[in-house]
Amino acid sequence: MSFSLSEIEALSRKAARGVGYSWGMAEDAGKSVRWLCSWGLPGAEALARYLQDRGRAPVQPEGPIDLSASTWTAAPAPLCPLMTGAAISDCASQDARLQLQNVEWPLLLLPQVAWPDHACTLRWASTTLCWDGTLHLSGPPLTPQADLVTLSPGANTKGKACRQTFRANPMPQAKEVLSRFAALTYAPETEMSRRTGAGAELVDRD
């Protein structure tokens, strides 16, 4: 199942909005999935499974409590990777070393920390992602939850080089989940919407 990067971005944006994120955060989610897919990484799978988990969790993920700290946490809730990634992009120094405690689906952080012309390394458990204008991966990219994620300046460890692509190839299950959440953004059809031009016309004019 293949999609253009624009298609997977739009679907991911609507899915994030469908579960309650603001349109601004949903835009970030869409762009993040597009960026991950452009490097051959399972961004659609990560977002789909995260949005599913978010709906089931008794405690909703949050953004970091103290942005001035060297270790970010949302305790007792886990850190939301979308909110935390946006906070890093907006507030964190590019040269600082940052630790993040209890992050769900940490792969979704990567697009927000891979700044242009700035090398960095993102690590959790047995996974390392190094960015220096190209991307190198060591370990499994899909991790549901990481007790500790470390962001440090410099591409300190090289792994397998990721190749850029112009198509997204999400698993069917991920596409199904994203489509289901995206459908929550659609307005229900009404008699008035049909009469004013939504969908097919009432009268066949052929």
Can you describe what's shown?
It is a single chain. By secondary structure, the chain is of the alpha+beta class. 36% of the residues lie in helices and 18% in strands. The chain has helices spanning 5-18, 23-38, 43-56, 81-91, 110-113, 172-182, 191-195; strands spanning 3-4, 71-72, 98-104, 120-124, 127-131, 135-138, 145-153, 160-161, 167-168. Strand 4 and strand 5 (127-131) form a beta hairpin. The longest helix is centred in the N-terminal third of the chain and has 16 residues, at 23-38. It is globular, with a radius of gyration of 19 Å. The model is unreliable at 192-206 (pLDDT under 50).
List strands and helices in order, with pairings.
Elements: E1 3-4, H1 5-18, H2 23-38, H3 43-56, E2 71-72, H4 81-91, E3 98-104, H5 110-113, E4 120-124, E5 127-131, E6 135-138, E7 145-153, E8 160-161, E9 167-168, H6 172-182, H7 191-195
Parallel strand pairs: 2-3
Antiparallel strand pairs: 1-9, 3-7, 4-5, 4-7, 5-6, 6-8
Keywords:
alpha+beta; 7-stranded mixed β-sheet; two-stranded antiparallel sheet; 9 strands; 36% helix
Strand content: 15-25%
Radius of gyration: 19 Å
* Overall strand count: 9
- Give the number of helices: 7
The biggest sheet, with number of strands, parallel, antiparallel or mixed sense and barrel status, is: 7 strands, mixed
- Taking the alpha carbons of the first and last residues, their distance comes to 35 Å
**How are strands sequenced across the largest beta sheet?**
2-3-7-4-5-6-8
The SSE order reads EHHHEHEHEEEEEEHH
Whole-number average pLDDT? Answer: 88
Structural class of the secondary structure composition? alpha+beta
Approximate shape? globular
Helix content: 25-40%
